[in-house]
Specification:
The structure is a single chain. By secondary structure, the chain is an alpha/beta fold. The chain folds into two domains: 3-81, no CATH class; 86-323, TIM Barrel. Helix content is 39%, strand content 17%. It contains twelve helices and twelve strands. The protein has helices at 32-39, 52-59, 70-84, 108-112, 122-135, 154-169, 189-197, 210-216, 226-238, 257-266, 289-306, 315-323; strands at 3-4, 8-13, 16-21, 26-30, 63-64, 91-95, 140-146, 175-182, 200-205, 244-247, 272-275, 310-311. A seven-stranded parallel β-sheet has the order 6-7-8-9-10-11-12. The protein has a three-stranded antiparallel β-sheet with strand order 2-3-4, covered by helices on one side. The protein has a two-stranded antiparallel sheet with strand order 1-5. α5 packs parallel to α6 (154-169) and α10 packs parallel to α11 (289-306). Iron/sulfur cluster (SF4) binds at residues 100, 102-104, 107, 109-110, 147-149, 183, 205.
Length: 337
Amino acid sequence: MIKKSENAFCFSIGNKKYLFNANTLKMFEVEEDQYKLVEAFDEHSELNQNSQAVKELIDEGFFVFKELKYMDLKKKRYEMASKADKNYISYLRISLTEGCNMRCKYCFVAEEFEKKKHSMDEDKFISIIEDFITHNYKNNVSIQYFGGEPLLKMNLIKIGNEMLKSAIADGKIKSANQEVVTNGTLINEDIINYFHENDIKCTISLDGLKEINDRNRIFADGSGTYDTVVSKCQLIKSMNGRVSFLMTPSKDNLDYLPRSIQYMIDELGADEININAPQPRVDGWDVDGAFLADKIIQSIEICQDCNIPFNHPASNLIFLLQRHELQRYSCIVLASK
Ligand code: SF4
């Protein structure tokens, strides 16, 4: 007896109708008649299995004779994946310090570690990087130096860079992608040169237009950080560097996100835009998920028109759905190689 699959989901965006199969992870834009067949189906419905529309829906698993259990398919995918992949962690995000020279209003570091702010000590850092290298014998690795403000521990970034370069030269690892995510205020010519010479990517946090950024991103004395950060970006540009921005959506700036992105591309020469997940609060995000999705869609269109790389909270979802794959790796690394 044929029935509607438990994995069949119907939804519409504007006038367009879609069917999504949670088992195969395939999504189809369909005509109204096919959509209705699935959406309105119940135990009293009769299907003409000779019709082309119904045949297609059976082929794609929206109608089934026997339900293939989601867990079965998921297990099969993971088994295939574990045969194909070695089990290793090749991406490291390392917080060098909880200290910072800024006091952003939405900062969870400030909230969590208000009284006790720790920093990574040199011996600990060296032993972590040694373990990371050993664990990834002959692999490609990626590391993100993070904080607090990681440029307060520039000495550790230099040590990490030297260790990774030596490991490549000694054939212990194949390659190392390195990135620093910074508030940008401590950048100077020496740091820009060092990053440039050592191929270390630098991503700078800025929330867009001055009046928007300075609502949340402030120094300890309460003054806005926009002017300082933008002057550092201009310095990077004048030294032929790339400027990659990280924006943090919050209830204070989300409405302006697409406008801010357009501004950063047109006026600040952004070469790449990244969107953080909204900062965690005790009772969840302070932004509405559907509103965030809407602003992200508008921003995708702007970045596509301007040919600017754009990484955002839905990047993985879109990448994986387009390939009908599960997320098997970290939220940052989509594939093992
Ligand atoms: S720059 Fe980052 S670590 Fe520093 S206060 Fe702002 S959000 Fe927190």
